[in-house]
Amino acid sequence: MNTYGAATHQHTNGRALDAALQRAGFYPLLVSDVVNDALDGREPLSHLVHLETHFDRTEVHRHITVLVLTHDMLVITHVDDQQLDEAGEQMVAQVSTESVPVAQIRSVVLSYLYSQPQNYKPSDPVRELTLSIAWSGGQRLDLGPAGCADPQCDADHGYSGTIAQEDIALRISAEADGLQAVQDAKSFARALRAANTSSAAAPAVHEDVRPKLPPFGARLGRGSSRR
After folding, report:
1. Residue scoring higher pLDDT (39 or 216)
2. Residue 134 pairs with which residues in a beta bridge?
3. Facing residues of 144 across strands?
4. What is the dihedral of CA 115, 116, 117, 119, to 10 degrees?
């Protein structure tokens, strides 16, 4: 792709990201500014916008997670709101951002849920998809009481569980979010896997770490340090 084509493609991706934030309708101007600030001038290659709504008695809580893939970073932005009074006139938005080097990502896991698998056809849509991404080595432990095959047994069998490596997990439901949202999540996961695989396959660059003497005139000067 030539320089003009690459620039056009990047601008198109940027417009698509802005359009996705507008469709989500969750403080789109605020979220767009936060995401662009977190990108720090990088051009988006792919994105995933996921809006969730939770009901807590009489209160409605919403939060949005925006994943943006650039050529070398995965930028994660999370925004949620909270009302400070019963009338909902006083609101605050809490924002967090994280930038993860693509080369640091350890795994990208997609979990699928299909209805009526006995009647499966290639054209059948995915009912639900969970995208899990791990990069820090953090693990989630799910425990529950262990049992045995004897339904009459009341002995204590301890606990059993599973350990999953994930730093972020997004659940996208076709029923709640729409079929297109599931397809968007699959497309983003493919782009992330491709970028991560390319980064892992890139040859390592070895720097010459042998000490070098400064020029004679600079040997009495002050050295510089790199943070």
Report:
1. 39
2. 107
3. 160
4. -130
